[in-house]
Design a protein that fits this description.
The structure is a homotrimer. Chain A is α/β, with parallel strands linked by helices. In chain A, about 45% of the residues lie in helices and about 15% in strands. In chain A, strands 1, 2, 3, 4, 5, 6, 7 and 8 form an eight-stranded mixed beta sheet that branches. In chain A, helix 1 (about 50-65) links the parallel strand 2 (about 35-40) and strand 3. In chain A, helix 1 (about 50-65) packs parallel to helix 3 (about 105-115). Chain A is globular and about 60 Å long. Chains in contact: A-B, A-C, B-C. The interface of A and B includes residues 168, 173 and 179 of A.
Chain lengths: ~300, ~300, ~300
């Protein structure tokens, strides 16, 4: 999954850093001002410690590239954009991720830096994105989604935990209190039309036109002046981004609630039902999350 | 209108406090984690000092119940969810309501505490809700409304007063400046489709499916972990709720403007036209409020 | 283009100040509480130093008129509401505009004061409004737009500059981060349906009903109590308006980026293509702005 095209940047770091072997995504850079990142981590694009580490490295490149105007994140898997975090995969490595350059915990760090990077980040969404997958796309600047093939959600509360990667902070500002509370507390899947209605995504595009329309937007942005993009975005950032201090306590809450025996057992049951696999459970997680609840 | 089913809570207060005789609503508690409150104050569910006192007591119970996850507020009257405050009913008792446990005036207090309670509050809306009735549903966490049978509005400015129960603070954050100003200043009725378009409610549900769909959402929430709900909600609260100090001056303005002779005369004319009764005026209040205006 | 009807105000300034000869718009005042301003600056309603000076004077009148409840801004040109700022028209006069009564630069000053005036301002939109034209309507309180005939946009980033009149501050609060970033960075035209979907306008009205429906809203507002409007609006202002200090740096950025040789050349090419004229370029500016970009 190495990148297939690498155009050198003017800052001397050239294409070497970019064209390294990534394992959870591929990177294509058809021009110095435009880059495409395609998630490909079979079977369902879960996020693991490796994904976080690679995204951290990638965002570091985005931040420092004076030629780059726009980065598109899409998926090689039509059914799964980014499934969610796989908490059972390399738990020691997840625990060891530590903090990123901002001093924030690694996952929060990479999302915060992506939001602030002087580059327009576009999530081109096809398939499912839940939990940390939803948090990733909420940290992108623009979200375009397949009209026919999109399912988004924050299923964490259904599993007895608090979303830890900034969902409350970002959704509350993006869609308003009532709709944010519904997404977060009812914790069910949102299809494309409801996601668009709520403002969870910018707008829907017919599935067979999604790639072409995102490409048109991207090639437009690629030709614009970098400084104009950077400064304009920074003014919107000041009004719309949460402060760092808002993000850390929620992650601590996630960890505390996740560590409880009842929740560990609940996650174990969900694994048995097919979590992290290309399963019916994963295709209908919003509804089927109920099956892992303790009997009441 | 006593509650029909009362399930004891684990905090020792049992069902006694809950199953008292309420006069402006009934309370049903089919399980420890789920409670339904049905407004029933004939003929049109106006809010009076008695409603405020009973809601204050009820919210006190909601706040302190570690088993309760979700409370639904609906109406026994298909045409009126909560008409509005009846200012002519027991004015002395309204004046004597004083302040609630937060130190805020009673009506503001009950709405503020409902918004912050560690319980998901759902307004299941059928019929009309204006003025304080609209303020009540804006203080709930989630708002689902009948597609065919919903009329919402803040008619106060049409009567020469300022909405005093937090409408400006809540609507401005919920639907944005332009649409909040339209709701508040044009002061007309909003039907379901426009309320949904503006974000005044989360979304519409076909009238014949409203109860079943709210029940499905509720039974889902009832099974979730209380601590996960409580903490997740609290993070959204921090971003989206107005500060207390924002709410008090508007209520003072309401009282000052309402006390002017021209406005007293205007309210008197509206009473003569059918205010507080199950009248054509109440069914078309947004439009007919003009009839009480002084001739110009 | 003098005003045709002028009703005296009770503050003694009478109709003299209002009925002066305006050159970029006409003013009609059918009653003391209602005023209509119609932009008419052929060929395409560009904004120039003269427009800013006249709007500054007009807003001064709006601010101090205790009888005026509502002002409607529409256009005599069905194809152009307010094209954009004409930077090549009287550049010396633009540079000499200085600061307004708030101490803010003149264009920012007039928009800030319009937003805070104790009068409901309504943009009744038909045709194109881009750049400063879009900034103007964003500073109005309510925005109603022709369903069939509306094109809005902030094309500045496509020209290598930062919007300088408050777009980032206002759009970010009005439509949320994701949609604000799309409007500002992709910098393309938004037609009516997308503008309504994003909350860029309050709502659309069929073109042949726009005038009548805005008139109905206006005549309603004209009959309401001035003090109730003024105070209610002021509470929404506190929650939704940007602080002055947020607005000045963006204008400085505009000036700095606009002064670069590459951007001067880009604006020159756009002029050659038909900018500021009733041209095909102006009708499709969002798309054709690309033609002025340097070859890459």
């Amino acid at each position: 999954m190495n990148a297939t095209r690498m155009n050198a940047s003017s800052n001397g770091r050239g294409s070497d850093a970019w064209s390294q072997s990534w394992t959870h995504f591929s990177v294509d850079r058809p021009s110095p001002s435009y880059c495409r990142v395609t998630f490909e981590h079979p079977p369902i694009n879960t996020i693991t410690a490796t994904t976080v580490a690679e995204l951290t490295e990638l965002v570091g490149l985005l931040e420092q590239d004076p030629d780059l105007n726009v980065v598109v994140f899409d998926s090689a898997n039509r059914d799964f954009y980014l499934a969610h975090y796989d908490v059972e995969n390399e738990p020691d490595r997840t625990a060891a991720l530590g903090v990123g350059p901002t001093g924030l915990p690694a996952w929060v760090d990479v999302l915060v830096r992506l939001s602030r990077a002087p580059v327009v980040s576009i999530a081109s969404i096809r398939g499912r994105a839940r939990g940390a997958g939803s948090e990733f796309l909420l940290a992108c600047d623009l979200r375009f989604a397949s009209r026919e093939n999109t399912l988004l959600g924050q299923f964490e509360v259904g599993m007895g935990v608090v979303p830890g990667g900034g969902s409350m902070a970002r959704l509350a500002r993006l869609v308003g209190r009532g709709r944010a509370l519904e997404i977060l507390l009812v914790a069910d899947d949102f299809d494309g039309p409801r996601a668009e209605q709520y403002g969870y995504v910018n707008r829907l595009i017919a599935d067979d036109q999604l790639d072409a329309e995102v490409e048109a937007i991207t090639s437009r942005l690629a030709r614009f002046d970098h400084e104009a993009i950077k400064r304009t975005k920074s003014y919107v950032d000041r009004v719309t981004l949460p402060g760092d201090s808002e993000l850390v306590p929620a992650l601590a809450d996630f960890r505390e609630l996740f560590g409880r025996p009842a929740q560990r057992a609940q996650w174990g049951r969900l694994e048995e039902l097919g979590l992290n696999a290309d399963s019916d459970l994963e295709r209908s997680l919003g509804r089927r999350v109920l099956e892992a609840l303790p009997d009441t």
